[in-house]
Amino acid sequence: MGQRTLAAALTLPGVLFVTVLGLWPLADFLLGSVTAPGGGLTDAHYRQILSDDLFITIAARTTLLAAGVAALTVMLAYPLAYWLMRQKGAGKGLLIALVALPYLTSVLVRVYAWEALLALNGPLNGLLLRLGLFASPRLLGHSLFGTTVGMVHILCPIAVLTLWSQLEKIDPSQRLVAESLGASTLRAFLTVFLPQSFPGLATAGSLVYVLALGAYVIPAALGGTKGLLFAQLVVDEATQLLDWEASGAMGVLMLVVAAVPVILLKGAGLILQRRRERGDTSRLQDVIDRHLHPMLDRLPVGALRVGFAAAAVSVLIFLLLPELVVLVFSFGPEKQVSLPPSSWTLDGYRTVLSDTAWRAPAERSIVYAALDALIATLCGTLAAYGFARGTWHWRQIGVAVLLAPLVLPEIVVAISFFVFATKNQLAGTDLGIVLGQAVGAIGLVALVVGPVVAAVDINLEYAAQACGASRIRAFRDIVVPLIAPGIVVGFLYGFLHAFDNLVTPLFIAGTRSTITVKMFLSMQEQLTSLPAVIASLLIFALVAGLTVSLTSRRGAALWATKPAALPEGSP
Description:
By secondary structure, this protein is an all-alpha fold. It is built from 26 helices and no strands. The C terminus is likely disordered.
């Protein structure tokens, strides 16, 4: 078997798994929207939906909210990503870990923190009342404001890491050359560095927009009845009314709404790039060059550095604050969530560790996540090796298949699997939950392990084969030890992705409730400190893992390295 054929064969387990359990259910779900009850094609569901004023209102509200969240998130993420790019050595690894901590922390944990902070009797309302800004408590949570804050906080680490990986590719010597030719530090940044970071800004903004558009957990927990969003409407249609054809039509429309702005943004970026290559300048650029730049040149030399540092630290505090708040809440009375707690106690920890209603879902979640991580690590690592070593023409399609569940609106993928599981008697079973959660974890592991495999010199494998080793033995004895840190990180990401999954088990678990479902339902009923206890245990475990990774020699090197490029076709 040739190298090319072998590389393609290694990607098959992961690609087939995602195709059969991810893309096929999605295609069947979406095709149902144009299928008439007696067979044939119909557009009745689309005509019905598009003639509904409520749907149009909700779609417009969701689109505007997603666009606003994307713009605000990118604005907050850029200073932190730029500051991260400028760091060196161990400090850079520590800063990456601090950004990764909220990213790796469960979405539900951070939603819980904001639900408590924004409550009517919560800390934020109390602070605003003491400052005299409010005369009475305001409904900050369970509103569009709460949804917006939650989305920006939860999606900001993704934008930071995406931007950082793009900024690292910009040659810093260009900015130094501009400064040597007389440009101020700020002008060199605005005219040389910033324009080259536009593709990264577009990528981060597009990713955040799509994720915000399909978000379900955040608006369900932090939104109000007057702020119903697209994902909630699709869920109600599919799970309560059981109108799968209409929900499929809504899913198609959601994909269209997600794709159009991304395509337009990509096209605008290409037009601007071509204009810059031709040396064309717009009237706005002429005004900036004539009026704004001279004013900026008069600013102090260190203004840019100090400004970015201050903004970056502020954003980092914003990202880490909910983690600290959750820890404080966990040591308070079970029925009272306040900051600081009215009394300090371990009763919440005793309840969670002794109560079967909490312990059983936690144990199931650990088992499900471990199985998903094993499946994802095996399939994702093999696929990553096949993509890195292969030169076959269909490689990009394979990459797109694995990453599709990660970049498409989450709720559409989850609902399509719910319909598939219901039709095939997988709903309410352990197998259904494991298979549903593994679909997205495989692509995530491949994304993590891929750059690590690509960094291994293929000549080492050729040398081993020249000495008589088979391809399998060369892979086992040469490649695996070199990529072991990446495999471990991939396993961790796969485990966390499955453990944090709420929407899939929420729809199909039945009596096999996971800890995320238990926390979500508990938050819907009453705000207590018990979800904070679970959240704190997860944060303690995550911090321990990051500490071990940072203090180990190979782990610290992995955190501090320059990020490799994402596979082509990925976001």
